[in-house]
Amino acid sequence: MSSITTTSLLLPQYSGYFNAEIIGANPTATTFILDCDYEKYPTEDDEDCYVTSQTIIVGPWADKTLSPGAPTTGIFRKIYVQEPEDGDDGYSFSAQCEMSRDYASICTTINIGGNGYFGETATFPRSTGTAYDGFYRMGGWGDFDWVPVTITKGQKYLATATEVTATSDAEVTSGATSTSGHVVVITGIKVVAVVGLILLTFLVDVGAIGQGRIRFRYWKNPGANKVQIKMSPPRRALISITSASASLFQGTETTGLFISEALHPYNVLTAAGFEVDLASETGTYTPDWLSQQPDFLNGDDLATWSNTNSEFRKKLDNMVKASELDASKYGLFYASAGHAALIDYPTATHLQKIAAQVWANGGVVSSVCHGPAIFANLIDPTTNEPLIKGKRITGFTTEAEIEMKIMEELRSWGSEMVEEVAERLGAVYERAPGIWDDFHVVDGRLVTGQNPASAASTAEAAVAVFEKL
Questions:
Q1: What is catalyzed by this enzyme (predicted)?
Q2: pLDDT the model gives residue 437
């Protein structure tokens, strides 16, 4: 097979010269990374195509010449990332259109991060009687059309076939692959396990794509092949920290970050081989007074907290603002808390955007105690619905707030309790019989813990879910 292939790709009304790398294909969708063909713009004075590393996902409905029996409708999706440039902040968004061939009936965009122009989400129905679809108003484009594109990599993923049952897996490091007939040729990699002739599966570490992993599946079938690709999230976690502080217990103490709710998951995640970062909305934190008392902080935990040169303290004391982080680098998000999280988490837009992108990229989102306050305005980018809608969660009980005799003070903050957030957003709230029992809930890739005693077990459950992705 030639290393260069020219094809026509259905795109919003782009003009110019384009290259594309295919990073995934199956019978229902093909994923391209689209770039300008810069070799055809020889000088800086030349206007290029103004497209840089856009992810485009289309289905067989978008083929310029339809195959027999192919659908004529489907979803066009793109993920756009604008890097910071000339003092301007970068931004990213996901957009999709419901398509009937090259006609977009309705388009939706979801702000992943930093994109003030579009707001959080926006829907663009096609205007009756106009020549322009929703993408025109959303990004300045006209109708969709088939555009010549040079495929420089990944041609092998274009083969399709009927899927058969998997038989085994193998792990490899990154390297070149090619296919010919039903033979897979692998170069520059180390095969860890040998598999059967029917299915070959690889886990490939690819640092260039979000430091994640790609799962390749190759099916041998008479007369045809199929390669399927699935990105696995990066083995890097973000523990979110509340920036808020407030007086509590009638002014006798100050609430902020509940120390063990960040320290315990930090220990679990680092022990599991994760690179772990800590961040708050403002880059600052206040330690919760109660969390530093002997009932909650003692032994090794106290030693770690007291040692300002411990890795945990260095990361906590020098953490950055959430807005300064690249959300694509994370495969696991863990919302630590403290009562103060009820104040800032509901409107912590940058932390929420990181959690949303982790979720959209197939990662794990988790929280403990008052951490579910982060869900108050956290939208699932794949559905435009609240991320916890229809899911089972837990968190600090309203009974515990009453037992601690602080409900009136919490109400003075104008904050929702965790159970109230769950009810408002259509989640199913669950709890242990005791308000201080170690208890957590796993619902798919969503993992939540009830109280400080649950911080470690919640992190362990989140790791277990991650390992199965």
A1: methylglyoxal + H2O = (R)-lactate + H(+)
A2: 97
